[in-house]
Amino acid sequence: MKIRPYPILIFCMLIGLVLIPDRSAQAKKKLSLSADSAIVMDVQSGAILYKKNMDKKQYPASITKIMTTLVALENSSMNETVTYSKGAVTNLESGASNIGLVPGEKMSMENSLYAVMLASANEACNGVGEHIAGSVEDFVNLMNERAKEIGCTGTHFANPNGLWLENHYTTAHDMALIAREAYKNPTFAKITGTKRYQLPDTNKTKNRGTMTNHHAMLVAGNFSQFVYDYCVGGKTGYTSKCRYTLVTFAKKEDMILVSVVMRADSPWVEKNEYTDSIKLLNYGFDNFKRYSIREEATKEIAKNNLFTKFSPFYSEDTSSLSIDEGADVILPKNVGMDQVEKKIEYYSDVRKLSDGRKVIGKISYTYKDREVGGSNIYYKKLNLPTLNDSIDMSEWFEDSVEKVNKGPFPWKKVILIGIVVLIVLFVLFLFVQRVRAEREARERRNRYRRTRKSLNRNEDGVYYRRK
Known about the structure:
This protein is α+β, with helices and mostly antiparallel strands and 467 residues long. It has helices at 5-19, 23-29, 65-74, 86-90, 109-118, 122-133, 136-150, 172-183, 186-192, 273-287, 294-304, 394-405, 411-453, and strands at residues 37-42, 48-52, 81-83, 106-108, 196-198, 210-212, 231-239, 243-252, 255-264, 288-292, 321-323, 328-332, 341-352, 358-367, 370-379, 455-457, 463-465. β13 (341-352) and β14 (358-367) form a beta hairpin.
């Protein structure tokens, strides 16, 4: 008996479709990480693309210096001179990273922050903190305040350098939020992406040499196999108690991602902080797409809130409301914006950021109950009339009162009258039709009678016309 192959082939294809898992789910399963906690986040939107124990308490080690640099950038200028005290340069544990600063040495804030980020210089962190806040302790308070402002919920800093202390901890999620906020600062982005930097001579030291960024995905060093084409910066971290931590920024086309791994294995073993980060970033670039929301969201805010105390009258183009410049949504590549839900929320109190901007609300986008993007809503008072201003509105008010006193247009009454008119016209139409029909019937009867009178009937009862 000859067996036809087509039914068998079709059956096998159907079985294959049932058994083959979803690509994105399969990709997630393949992310076998050495790190105890990990996350990859879209920098522009803040969307979380992958997470593993992201809210678990961890010790950050030197990735703490991202927050140190952010707070320093927001509270100083790059040309300020930092003078290093004896306490700043000597209060370090044995083996801590440093560039050999000595008491009384002077260095610009810019050079100090390059030392913090590239060489992971612990004494530079102390000196920067003392310069800005007067003491390391007060600077740490600024770090914790800024962390809360960013939205961190599981973070407490106890020093500006990340050397281990039991009460110095964070989470992978919080570090991603901090790193995202830092990368928005152009100076930070420049520093973290610098591969090598030559420190100039100071009042105490000559020919200190060139600093090389420790991040192996950015600079080929001891681990050249981990160089990543899309890497644009980051920060390494390690202590024996914290283990290996790593923050990495990567850019591919119009997407910028940040990955965080905490308590990972050593780069000397097969799975480590770098292989974990490469897996996370590749997963984000391969499975997600960015959609800009700036134009659409700006119009939505202006349209819905044109007559509030925060917006000028009449004109969308001159609105005092704005959103983040790079606001966007990040979605799986097979999902469109028509599948996203939008929500606009306004706060009861105005929140002022450290850069002076006033946040009055938030526009957020969700997909399958997960936030995939959005932006703060900012208010900037312009030289335009708003409901808070004392302006002459008398003519507009009188006109409005006159219109209100006229009452609303009586739509119900008009519709009712229209229905009555239609009924009357329909009855008249039926009446006319009935009169016309009766008149035609009467005329037919009269014609019949006249016709019979003009005829004779024979003996058989048949009518015939008279001659």
